[in-house]
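Teaching assistant here, posting this on the class forum so everyone can see the example we discussed in section. The complex has two components, and the goal was to see what a joint structure prediction looks like when all of them are supplied at once.
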Amino acid sequence: GAVVSQHPSRVICKSGTSVKIECRSLDFQATTMFWYRQFPKQSLMLMATSNEGSKATYEQGVEKDKFLINHASLTLSTLTVTSAHPEDSSFYICSAATSRVSDSNQPQHFGDGTRLSIL
Amino acid sequence: AQTVTQSQPEMSVQEAETVTLSCTYDTSENNYYLFWYKQPPSRQMILVIRQEAYKQQNAMENRFSVNFQKAAKSFSLKISDSQLGDTAMYFCAFTARGNMLTFGGGTRLMVKP
């Protein structure tokens, strides 16, 4: 149980285009979803937290107009990288929270990530 | 704010031997949870082990065990009988409120044949 599907797993696109990444909780309802960015050999950096039906909360230094997050339902959140440039190339990971950490063996269930390469 | 520190950026161990990864954290909370995650080259995040702060007994999952020292705010991971498949990045993580996770910087573990 508690499967999170992230799509696409890899995307390569030209500079200036917009890229959408989907994160779906397949067998549970996720009231909260998280988006992370990870550079090679580094830790996960939280970009934003999204709650179903409300605006996402962005971490300091993350441009909300650059990284658009939509959490329209309890099973789907999307991250759109707008007007992508080579410096946006990175590994992006989503996760979904099921319930209180005390009720589950872990607070977040992770997708398999998306490797984004901007040429 | 909570912080999690992993002081060993890289470690290596011979296959079948034991290795310990260090993690310290800082918090003013009394009730919290600690985790070790494994991220193999495939980049999936895999939960290895979890520890509730109110439990004195150290968590153990097969070859993986922790040494949780609450007073010292230390949470190390011991991997026994290391296997080649244990090669990965290992992240220590903390949560106290809701589902927010604070990650350490990671330790890159290489198991050598």
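For the discussion questions: Chain A has a mean pLDDT of 91. The first strand of chain A starts at residue 4 and ends at 7. Think about how each of these relates to the inputs above.
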